[in-house]
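Sequence only, no structure available. Ideas?
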Amino acid sequence: QLQLVESGGGLVQPGGSLRLSCAASGFTLNAYAVGWFRQAPGKEREAVSCISVIGSITNSANSVKGRFTISRDNAKNTVYLQMNSLNHEATAVYYCAARKKGFGICSLGGSEYDYWGQGTQVTVSS
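Reply:
I predicted one. Tokens follow.
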């Protein structure tokens, strides 16, 4: 069974950092582009960052550029999202997703993704 599992969420103070992980089971994640998305209460889902099969090709939303870094460890079948300088606007459920099509190129469009995890809660609060 194909499955994505996010972890690493939690409560953090403003200005703090968290590293989210997206682990795959049942398939080889390194053959897929992967995206991170988030949804805050009462808001639509928004793209955060994505990484292509070629790990050097990434893209991020303007709101997180310079603060969030996406990376992948193919040996661990895992994609990470390092989040620094967190602010209250980062409070949301974070989801990772894997994209089969697109020749391995990632996209910030959520509709482009085929497999989704259940999400991990990130709360930024003092």
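The chain has a mean pLDDT of 96.
Hope that gets you unstuck.
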